[in-house]
C-alpha cells in the first residue's frame, strides 16, 4: 500500500504546488507485476510545444506530458501569442504565430523548468520585443551562463542576474555562428539550434559527446532542414515551420523508475506500452540488461523520426558473471544524466554495486542530486563513497525504511520510492508532491504494479 499524508489534510491525488508539502508512505513489496503506459515524453513535449507556438497553422498533439514542466512551456507560448486548446480527449491544439511572437504582457514564468528557460531563450532572442524570464526558487539557482555565451555570440542581448534568472532579453536580429558545446547539454544545443533557425546565415554546432537528439527530429518534423556530419550539426536561418499532428511517445526517463524496480524482485514481470526508444536515450535499456534485467521488444515503429515501442522486462535468473561493480562514466554518464538518481537508489541491492563518475552536472540540477542521493542512502543505512563528480555504492546491501528528503526534486522523490520497495520497514518520502513536475501519476502507477 502507498499512502498519502498532506500537511493540510488527507487525500489520494498529489498535485504540485509551491506552498504545499506532502509525505508519501511507501511499504515494502514482494514483486512488480502488470502493464503501464507512462506519460508523454517530457523532452519531446517541450520541443513540440515551442515549435508549434512558432509555426504557422494548428498543431495537434496526443499524449502530451502531464508533468508541470512542459505545461510551463505551453503557458509561455500562450503569453507569446499562440492559442492553446485542451480538448476533452486529452489532445492539445496549438495555433502558432507564424514566425512572429508578440510582446508578452507579463514576465514569462518558466516555473521549475530549466528546459523551458534555456530553450525558450534561443527561440525568442531574435524577436523585436523585450522579454523577462522568471522561475521558482529552485530554477533561480540554476546556471544560465551556458546559454548566454553562445546566444551573445549570435548578437543576442541577454542579461542575467549573477549568472542566473531572472533573464532579460532584448530581441535583435541574430547572426549565424560556429559553436562547440563546452559541456554535454541537449538544452544548450537546442537553444543554439532554435536561435540559428531564425538567424542570418548557417549556424553550425559541434559536440564532443552526442546528446539526445529530440530537437533535431522535432525541427525536421515541423519542416526545417538540418545537416549532420559526424559530430556536428548545421541549420540554415530563415526557414519557416508548419504545423503537425503527432502522438508523443511515452517518457523513457519516467519509465526508468519502473525498469529499475523490476530489477529488485526475481519474479517481476512488467510491460511498458508506447514507450519512446530514441537511440540517444536507449542506453538505459542496455544498462538495465547489464544489471540483470531481461528486456524483450514486443513491437516498434517510427513516428516523426522517434522510435516508439512496447517492451517487456523482468529479472534474469542467471547469476552475474563478474564481481566488478557496474561503472557509469564519460559518454554513458551524459546519456543517463536524468536516470542516474534511480540507478544510484537501487545500487545497494544490485549484486556488485554501481560506480558513477563524471556526473558533476547532477550538482546543478533541480537540486544537488549527488548530495541528496548520499543523504538518503545514509538514512536507509547504505554504505557508499561520495565524490565531487559522483558516488560509489557497493552492492549486496540490506536497507531499512527511513524518512527521505526529496529536496523538492521530482527525480529524488521517485528514485527513493523505488528503493523503499525492497527495504525492511516503511519509508516516508517528504516533499513527494515534487513528482508532479514530470510524472503526476507516479505514486498511483507504482501502487497498481507493486505486489504485496
Helix content: 25-40%
Q: Under the CATH scheme, which architecture of the largest domain would be assigned?
A: Alpha-beta prism
Largest sheet: 5 strands, mixed
Number of strands: 26
Proportion of residues in β-strands? 25-35%
Strand adjacency order, main sheet: 2-1-3-25-24
Mean pLDDT: 93
Structural class: alpha+beta
Distance between the termini: 8 Å
CATH class of the largest domain: Alpha Beta
- pLDDT < 50 runs, ≥5 residues: 3-19
- What oligomeric state best describes the polypeptide chains here? single chain
How many domain modules?
2
**CATH topology heading of the largest domain:** UDP-n-acetylglucosamine1-carboxyvinyl-transferase, Chain
CATH homology superfamily of the largest domain: Enolpyruvate transferase domain
State the helix count. Answer: 14
